Amino acid sequence: MPTILSLCDRTGTWPAPYEEAGYDVIRVEIEDGHDVRLLRVGELPPIHGVLCAPPCTHFASSGALHWKRKGDAALLEGLAVVDACLRVVVAVRPAWWCLENPVGRLRHYIGAPAMTFQPCDYGDPWTKKTLLWGDFNTDLRRTPVEPEGYNWTLRFSPGPERQALRSITPPGFARAFMEANP
């Protein structure tokens, strides 16, 4: 089976449908001791597709009130991870690739997204507008549902797992993406 490279997806929900379908998935996640900025692409097998989910901490509009306090150092840290993801894409030349991040200031640094979505468009009953950049099939099979209230990802209390819980790729979207981008 083809190999999918999953970069910075802490939860593993985006590549899960590929794994379930029998694809080989290589996960590169700093929480597991693998920093995308240090990835040696020459040691990788041929890569069919790349999923990039760089941390949104320094980009998402939900944290805009903290941007000034964090300063440029935090923004540069976030951009370094995005740059590394894009460097990997250029180096491995996959059949398709996609980078996701919620609404925020990343578009000011890498341009307009190829697509936007809400989780409720793909069967997950919440909202969290997400932007997608890349070279991939945007014709995803939609299975819309009514959202159950406001974005549930904003309700998590501060704590060590908050960032991971808020960054979970909606499973319905992940499946639709895999079906459209085999």
Task: Please provide a written account of the structure.
The chain has 182 residues and is of the alpha/beta class. Helix content is 27%, strand content 16%. The chain has a 6-stranded mixed sheet with strand order 2-1-3-4-6-5, with helices on one face. The protein is globular and about 45 Å long. The chain starts with a strand and ends with a helix.
Architecture blueprint of SSEs:
Elements: E1 3-7, H1 16-20, E2 24-28, E3 49-52, H2 67-92, E4 96-102, H3 107-110, E5 115-117, E6 130-135, H4 162-166, H5 171-180
Parallel strand pairs: 1-2, 1-3, 3-4
Antiparallel strand pairs: 4-6, 5-6
Helical proportion?
25-40%
Amino-to-carboxy terminus distance: 11 Å
Beta content? 15-25%
- Give the spatial strand order of the biggest sheet: 2-1-3-4-6-5
- Subunit organisation of the chains: single chain
Low-confidence stretches: none
* Number of distinct beta strands: 6
Helix/sheet category:
alpha/beta
Element order, helices and strands? EHEEHEHEEHH
**Outline type:** globular
Biggest β-sheet: count, sense, barrel?
Answer: 6 strands, mixed
Which keywords apply here?
6 strands, 6-stranded mixed sheet, single chain, 182 residues, alpha/beta, 27% helix
Short description:
With 182 residues, the protein is α/β, with parallel strands linked by helices. It has helices at residues 16-20, 67-92, 107-110, 162-166, 171-180, and strands at residues 3-7, 24-28, 49-52, 96-102, 115-117, 130-135.
